Hints:
The structure holds two protein chains of two kinds. Chain A is α+β, with helices and mostly antiparallel strands. Helix content of chain A is 25%, strand content 33%.
Amino acid sequence: MCLFVNVQKKIGTFQLQVQFESQARRIGILGVSGCGKSMTLKSIAGIETPDIGKIQVGNQILFSSAARINVKPQKRRIGYLFQNYALFPTMTVSQNIAAGLKGSRQEKQERVQEMIRKFRLEGLEEQFPEQLSGGQQQRTALARIMAYEPEMLLLDEPFSALDVLLKDRLQWEMMELLEEYRGTVILVSHSRDEIFRFSEELLIMAQGKVITYGKTKRIFANPGTREAARLTGCKNFSRIHRQDGHTALARDWGISLHVEQEIPVGANYIGYRAHDFEPVWGKRRKNCIKVQVGGLSELPFERNYYLLPERKGGEIPEWEKNRTKIAEDISELVCWFVQKEKWSRLKEKGLPDYLELKEEYMMFLE
Amino acid sequence: MLDWSPLWISLKTGIAATFFCFFLGIFAAWKTMKLSGAKKAVWDGIFTLPLVLPPTVAGFFLLLLFSRRRIFGNFLYQTFELKVVQSWLGCIIAATVIAFPLMYRNARAAFEQLDVNLIYAGRTLGMSESRIFWKIVLPTASPGVASGTILTFARALGEYGATSMLAGNIPGKTATISQKIGMVIQDGDYLTAGVWVAVVLTMAFGILFLMNLFAGTGKRSGKRW
């Protein structure tokens, strides 16, 4: 089913301006809090009304300011899973699931039973939402939506209210439960892991606008812009000065980059993921940053090093003099995340002299 | 032998006024909540006015409206043979108007505390607006609505100022407990006044006790300290 969205809405000083079109069954929307992700979902569901624009699902126009169409949320058949699940507190699990159902008592009963089984809520039928665990609440909310057989499902930060231990398992569980659902699902999240796991296509939003849209895997490999790269979890950025098609000066790291591939003309930054550095001891290789000890934070299965790129002779290079003006948001610390299995090498050889940037992981960004 | 009629008149008036306030107050709260800006301020002002006005002022306006020498009062009398001034109907109307803001404000506070996502969820599940109201909004807001109802009843029960102006103080017909107390005090009959005061105190305390009991059934019951 094809989804077409092109809406604008102004709220105070915030301006939402979203446009995308997708055939994908699983769409992710990634962005920080307050970037307009939820507002976009709510517009699709009909809970919020955009100022102008058009929303179309398949052949049905749900909203069109030009044609003065605004289908009521009741008629859109779009399920919405709220961040806090929005279970009706005075109703039991069964009553919650039956809330949106039409038909005879018998039919409703059967449908509820079916959902209870499918979402593994057996034994909880007569419980009230506040008596349920976070995971059970989520399954109840999902069962309530699915009982209603929506044509599209919108998930608004469904895992943000859960504690970390539960999160992974529930994400996996939900994907399994949604496996057989044929309709389109849109997941909104600020977690790149959730989005990466879930979505075929990805929309990255910032300040009310879509900054990148495309296949999820492709965007993670090549985000295109610095903001998009940051949202997909890239930690290291440097301004670059392109010298020719294959050479660029990484100004914030104080090194020259030499690559086989053609550096795009419009590239102003290079991004490099913290997991992708190769430690080098002894002799310097191509595309290496000489690093000094900075900070270290130890996690159970990962060590995060925050290293300072070392400059020759301690002089302040030309590009460094006005850096505060241009790139306050670029940290000069280089983040290097080391997975547990590599710790033994570090223990044996000590901190590396250089970190090597592999060409295949370099991301040239606008 | 004490004439118990003021007690029955007060109770009857209280129950009738609470009945009207319950529906009117909830309806007004629900409608006002959906308004915004100046419209909301105006309607909220009108609905709350009887709470802040001296009851005698409210009584004055009611008298102006319902007097048979005025258009509306005359119309009621001519068409429906309804006599408001100096009648039990006057007691009910006075008590309803005076107690109405308590119901309205409590209901609105309860509605406004409601998680708006519940309403949105109802809509996306295809529930009609009226079904959402009766099945989700009202049950969820019921503790606030209940305490509003009780306060309304208590206020209607003790109404004095507007009632005395609109309905007068006719023994056995419109003489409520509050009016009875006022009257016997003027006669210097402190014993009878004392009996009625005791009755009122007992009822007032009973009502507050009931209200606390209601309010304590939610999840925040029990000791917090």
